[in-house]
Write a structure and sequence with these properties.
Number of helices: 5
Strand order of the largest sheet: 1-3-4-5-2
Radius of gyration: 15 Å
Largest sheet: 5 strands, mixed
Amino acid sequence: MISVKPKYAEKIFSGNKQIEFRRVRSRLEKNDLVLVYVSSPKKALVGYFEVGHIVQIEIQKSSKELNKFWKQVKDIAGISSKEFKTYYNGASIMVGIFVKNIKTLSEPIELTQLRERIPEIRPPQSYRYLKESEFKILKSMME
């Protein structure tokens, strides 16, 4: 599960943002399922996607790697060059999660509903790797 700001979630689910950027190393792999929780003010699980592939690049003192990657993804990023550079300013790693097989839930599942079924659930700052039991509960709620 990942948390995404509402404006970026809209772009993911409309297909305009085909890569999700993170500043934290990931254990995600190709074809993993990623549940998308939209942060405040929405506060709801709204859909999911599969990982097409993932790129993790160490950012050295030079931003050459970052600029090279931006040139490769700018047409599918769903954000401006300025937003990209601001987001990675001071970061030590750049993670790009390529999105495929996007699915929007027919009804978003609000945080209060999530907590009724999984009381300890907290929206992640970056990623939340679900226990199998949690995933089964969420899967049943999404169907």
